[in-house]
Amino acid sequence: MTRTGIEAALNDLLFNRDITLDEAADRHFTPDYRQRTDGEWADRGAFLDHIGHLRGIVAGGHVDVHEELYDGDKYADRHTCHVTKVDGTTVAMEVYVFADLAADGRFSRIEETTLMLQGTDADRDLGSAR
Predict the structure, then answer these.
(1) Suppose 24 and one of 12, 75, 89, 128 were both cysteines; which one would form an S-S bond, judging by CB atoms 3.0 to 4.6 Å apart?
(2) Beta-bridge partner residues of 63
(3) Helix axes 21-28, 44-57, angle to 10 degrees
(4) How many of the other CB atoms lie within 10 Å of CB of 106?
(5) What pTM does this model have?
(6) What residues form DSSP beta bridges with 6?
(7) If DSSP codes are grouped into helix, strand and coil, which group holds residue 129?
(8) How far apart are CA 90 and CA 84, in angstroms?
(9) Residue 56 to residue 109: CA distance in whole angstroms
């Protein structure tokens, strides 16, 4: 089993424009995927709406993984996502993730909390904006 991780998933979702959003999602997330970000639940459809919105406002960026742990079908990490928006402004979000992996190594559930390190008040909901 090849397991996904947050860096590979975010790179494909946000920064790799050589693949479609659906291709990126299928690589890293199960069809029944769901996510809770800062207390708000989203099913896969709502999650993809969120990522589609981000693809429209994000020009580039990178992910720094600080810690990453796998334990069977459990995954946890702490990472910082650095984003440059199309308007030239930058945002940095530190994210704490706990997740379940499906038997095929893709994420089936993520629960995350975000902490904005850099950006404006309008960027605070970047982790769940649609």
Answers:
(1) 12
(2) 81
(3) 130
(4) 20
(5) 0.91
(6) none
(7) coil
(8) 4
(9) 24
3-class secondary structure per residue, 35-98: EEECCEEEEHHHHHHHHHHHHHHEEEEEEEEEEEEEECCEEEEEEEEEEEECCCCEEEEEEEEE
Distances (CA, A) of 16 to 2, 26, 82, 113: 20, 14, 15, 24
How many Cα atoms are found within 13 Å in the side-chain-facing hemisphere of 19? 16
* CA atoms of 99 and 118, how far apart (whole Å): 25
Q: Is the dihedral of CA 71, 75, 76, 80 positive or negative?
A: positive
| Strand ranges of the sheet holding 40-43, from the earlier edge strand across to the other edge | 40-43, 29-37, 107-118, 90-101, 74-85, 58-71
Chain center to CA of 47: 9
Residues facing residue 78 across a β-bridge:
67, 96
